[in-house]
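Weekly sync, protein design subgroup
Attendees: M.S., D.O., the rotation student, P.L. (late)

Item 1: inverse folding check
M.S. brought a backbone from last month's batch and wanted to see whether the design step gives back something sensible before we order anything. D.O. pointed out we never logged the input encoding, so this time it goes straight into the notes. Structure tokens as presented (412 positions):
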């Protein structure tokens, strides 16, 4: 009988960075790859069914919710005349009551560079009593869970479409990619002070990317996998020194976060001719010819990140077409249109995979090599942020609201 990944199994299939002590502390959850150990989650809901609470969120933002110590955190951008205010918000997970609202940065202009993006798209990270927020070239900051700004810094670069990728924590470092068309670099800040500990320039900064790095364990060492325009690079996360890189000359504006399983790193190559690359991460130098195990272009996403479950890789492209591939070989098991366009990354929880589309509808499937839809759940509000899973619940951010979706038993 085929085994499907659970909380106990996925750590044997997916190499994770040291776990953060929170239920859903960063973009794509504790392992950064869309897996949750929660059980008893709802399968079906609507705008009124299985809704524990619904609260209005001011401003505009597509950062995904993160959940820690009974609170839900997200960022938003509000307007104040011609100015914009970049803010960190927190809500009580039990009641939805807002508990923190603090301005982190002020913008001179609230004009968007891309109508589909926002000034608050990167997702924050919670660790202990600090929340780390990132607004791309507009700045990065550490904020206490009581709402006090501890430090904030700016690293300037020009991005055609605005803010994108989220940061990642590694030991005492906060690491993120700055991929502009004038400058491109990866930088690590001391998470206590905000001072730069290392900065590594990208080759050929002639285009941009918006991806979130992932730390993985390979043999006896950790690697920071950072997807950029035209290259994916593995760095030593302690020093920023390059270990290997893989090239794709037509790929830029990369958004999906990489995932890791079955000894392979899965990346997507961005616009023009999007493709999925499966890379063996034990190489050195240029591994384009030597360590790319397989590639696939049919159904490759531009925005949503993949998820590895069991022996399969599941992806959904921006047009809403989901695919199931054998993780080891790239062989296609099935391909199915789910519904509307998709920007959010899927999550695997309680034995099911959840795909949220841009109309606020979540399609629930079973992880099988034959397509098996379980439910279709509509909130009837636009949604681009990815789902957070914690407290026996889903936390879903739409264009104007934050929902807690849970069965009554989970609310006790």
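Designed sequence read out in the meeting:
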């Amino acid at each position: 009988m085929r085994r499907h990944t659970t909380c106990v199994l996925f750590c044997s299939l997916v190499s994770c960075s040291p776990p953060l002590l929170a239920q859903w502390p960063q973009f794509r959850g504790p392992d950064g790859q869309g897996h949750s150990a929660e059980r008893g989650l709802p399968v079906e809901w609507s705008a009124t069914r299985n809704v524990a609470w619904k609260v209005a969120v001011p401003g505009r933002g597509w950062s995904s919710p993160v959940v820690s110590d009974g609170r839900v955190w997200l960022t938003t951008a509000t307007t104040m005349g011609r100015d914009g205010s970049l803010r960190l918000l927190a809500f009580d997970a039990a009641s939805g009551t807002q508990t923190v609202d603090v301005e982190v940065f002020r913008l001179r202009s609230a004009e968007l560079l891309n109508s589909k993006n926002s000034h608050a798209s990167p997702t924050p990270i919670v660790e202990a009593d600090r929340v780390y927020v990132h607004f791309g070239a507009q700045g990065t900051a550490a904020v206490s869970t009581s709402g006090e700004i501890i430090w904030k810094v700016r690293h300037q670069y020009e991005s055609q479409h605005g803010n994108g990728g989220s940061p990642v924590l590694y030991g005492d470092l906060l690491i993120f990619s700055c991929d502009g068309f004038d400058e491109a670099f990866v930088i690590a800040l001391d998470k206590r002070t905000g001072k730069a500990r290392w900065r590594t320039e990208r080759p050929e900064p002639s285009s941009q990317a918006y991806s979130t790095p992932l730390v993985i364990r390979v043999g006896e060492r950790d690697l920071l996998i950072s997807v950029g325009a035209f290259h994916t690079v593995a760095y030593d996360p302690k020093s920023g020194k390059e270990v290997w890189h893989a090239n794709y000359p037509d790929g830029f504006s990369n958004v999906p976060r990489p995932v890791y399983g079955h000894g392979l790193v899965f990346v997507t190559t961005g616009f023009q001719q999007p493709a999925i690359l499966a890379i063996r991460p034990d190489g050195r130098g240029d591994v384009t010819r030597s360590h790319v195990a397989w590639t696939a272009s049919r159904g490759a996403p531009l925005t949503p990140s993949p998820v590895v479950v069991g022996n399969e890789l599941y992806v959904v492209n921006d047009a809403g077409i989901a695919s199931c591939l054998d993780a080891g070989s790239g062989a296609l098991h099935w391909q199915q249109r789910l519904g509307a366009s998709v920007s959010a990354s899927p999550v695997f929880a309680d034995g099911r995979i959840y795909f949220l589309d841009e109309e606020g509808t979540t399609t629930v499937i079973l992880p099988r090599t034959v397509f098996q839809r379980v439910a279709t759940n509509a909130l009837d509000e636009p949604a681009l942020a990815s789902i957070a899973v914690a407290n026996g619940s889903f936390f879903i951010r739409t264009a104007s609201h934050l929902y807690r979706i849970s069965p009554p038993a989970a609310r006790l």
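Discussion: The two ends are 36 Å apart (CA to CA). The first strand starts at residue 35 and ends at 36.
Action: P.L. to compare against the previous round before Friday.
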